[in-house]
Structure prediction request, 296 residues.
Amino acid sequence: MVKDIRRRDEENMKEIEKIIKEIDRLKPVSYIRDKIMEIISNPDSSLAELVGIVKYDQGMTANLLRICNSAYFGLAKKITSVKQAVAYLGIDKVASLAMMGNSADNFREAQAGYDLTEGELWRYSVSSALMAQDLAEKRNLNNISLIFTSALLKDIGKVILNTYVKDSFEAINKAVQSKGITFIDAEKEVIGIDHAELGARVAEQWNFSPVMVNIIRNHHHPEKALPGDLSIPIVYMADCICMMMGMGVGSDGLAYRHYQDIVDRLHFSDIDIQKTIAGFSGKLEDIEELVSISGG
Prediction:
């Protein structure tokens, strides 16, 4: 009996190690994106630092300017330089948008295991990031660009785990139905690792800040946030609102839980949430354009 358990544990560990090794097949964060990540993680970063990094990458600059000039932002004056973009939108927002404009490659394909069609994971990721940014601004948080980027990249683990979820979907769904657990908990029970933990492993391998790694790891578990830390609850709430609006409702969305205490912790009322949804709904066409532009 003990030998059987030990053998099963060893087999599970080997399978998890095999899954983690697949991180190498993702398109890695480039040197320039790595430097932007440093800016996002450093509240003392300057305009000159950001401009100095982005201006040497023509593709990134062009993509960033297309995003800034999109209908979503509705700027009266056409933006023609990174410096001008920062002047209108601020360094934090421009740094976040630069990351968005160069992060779509890993998210474009369909994720059959999660019942997401081609481009749907990216559309959902961008929407969730924009929603998290909006909620963070409403609470006047000082790490908005970090929250935005964490929300944008939090589901990177799905890109790797997709095939395993597809192959184990029946067992995962059975666990959800029979045990009343969430899809992500069923992922871990059946496969041995869930997409949030796998995403955190990606973030660690790509040298993201510990704060971002923690947000990605716990984006389904806002109750694990430290007292006073609103970043994880914000990202979780953004996900919940996107699900309410029918965005990204793949196979795992059907088992998503909404915690009233998280709304209370963020000091949002039902009216606040309704206004946020209404404001976001009014921008859906502009968001679609933004997703299209950023997805290249």
User: Anything to note?
Assistant: The longest helix spans residues 2-21.
